[in-house]
Specification:
By secondary structure, this protein is mainly alpha-helical. It is built from 10 helices and 2 strands, in the order ααββαααααααα. The protein has a two-stranded antiparallel ribbon.
C-alpha cells in the first residue's frame, strides 16, 4: 500500500469537487427536500408523540425538553449519512459504473487528487445538510445562538471523518451490494446507540464503554454542546477524537483507494 505523498496532491483536487458540484446543481431541488422536511417529520413524531411520554430530561444540571435533546443529534446523523453514503454508493457508482474516475485520469489529475476531491465533496454535502436542517430546527426554537453556528465547522470535521471512513469501505468492498454490511454493522448501531435518542447513562456500563468508541457519539456530544450551550471540559476529548480520527482516516482512505484502482 502506497501512502499518499503531499507532493502528489495539489489544488487540482478542487476540480473534482467542482465537477461533482456541477452535477449536484442540476438536481439541487430534489437534494434539498430531505434536509428541509426530515427534521420537521422528526419534530412532529417525537414532539407530538414520544416527547409527551418521556417529558423533560436532566442534562448537565438542566431540564431539557426531549425534542430539544434530539435536535442536535439529528444534525449529527445527517452529517454521518451524507458523508458516508456519498463516498460509498455514489463514489462507487462514479468509479465502477459511470467510469468517471477513468475520464478524470485522462486529465492532469492523479488518483490521490481524485479521491481527495471526492472526500471534500462528501464533506460539503454534510455541511449543506447541516445548514438546511439547522435552519429548520432553529426556526422551531430548538437551538441556542450563537453557539449553534459552530455546527457548521463541526459538520466540516465530521463530514471529513465519515467521508474517509466511507471511502475506506469503498476501497475494501468487492461490489456495491457489499455496502449493506458496514451499513448494518457500523452505521445503524451508531444511529441507535450513540446518544442520539436517549442519554448514554441509560445504557449498561459495558454498552456505555462501547458507545465511547463510536465516532457518532462524539459528534453528537459536540453538536449538543454547541447547539444547546452545554459546555464541558469533556467536549475537548470528543474534539480530539474526531481530529485524530480524521487525520488517520483520510490518508488511509486515499492509500487504499489508490491500491484498489491500480490493482
Amino acid at each position: 500500500m502506497r501512502w499518499p505523498h503531499p507532493a502528489r496532491i495539489s489544488a487540482r483536487a478542487l476540480r473534482v469537487w467542482q465537477r461533482n458540484y456541477s452535477v449536484y446543481r442540476k438536481t439541487w431541488a430534489i437534494s434539498f427536500i430531505p434536509p428541509l422536511f426530515e427534521p420537521l417529520l422528526y419534530v412532529l413524531a417525537f414532539g407530538m408523540g414520544l416527547a409527551v411520554m418521556v417529558g423533560d430530561l436532566q442534562l448537565a444540571g438542566r431540564s431539557i425538553p426531549y425534542t430539544t435533546f434530539i435536535a442536535p443529534a439529528l444534525v449529527s446523523v445527517a452529517v454521518m449519512y451524507n458523508a458516508f453514503f456519498e463516498t460509498t454508493y455514489n463514489s462507487f457508482v462514479r468509479m465502477y459504473y459511470q467510469k468517471t474516475f477513468d475520464a478524470l485520469l485522462a486529465t492532469p489529475l492523479n488518483l490521490e487528487e481524485i479521491i481527495l476531491g471526492e472526500i471534500l465533496w462528501a464533506a460539503t454535502k454534510a455541511v449543506i445538510a447541516t445548514a438546511l436542517m439547522g435552519a429548520v430546527l432553529a426556526l422551531c426554537g430548538l437551538f441556542s445562538f450563537p453557539g449553534a453556528l459552530l455546527l457548521l465547522p463541526l459538520a466540516v470535521l465530521g463530514g471529513l471523518f465519515f467521508a474517509g471512513l466511507g471511502m475506506i469501505c469503498t476501497a475494501l468492498s468487492p461490489g456495491i451490494e457489499t455496502f449493506n454490511l458496514p451499513t448494518f454493522l457500523f452505521i445503524m448501531p451508531m444511529f441507535l446507540f450513540s446518544g442520539t435518542f436517549f442519554p448514554l447513562q441509560n445504557l449498561p456500563g459495558w454498552a456505555q464503554g462501547v458507545a465511547q468508541v463510536l465516532p457518532l457519539t462524539h459528534l453528537v456530544l459536540l453538536a449538543r454542546g454547541c447547539a444547546l450551550h452545554l459546555w464541558s471540559a469533556a467536549l475537548w476529548t470528543s474534539l480530539l477524537y474526531l481530529l485524530a480520527g480524521t487525520l488517520v482516516a483520510l490518508p488511509v482512505a486515499i492509500a487504499l483507494m489508490v491500491r484498489r484502482i491500480v490493482r
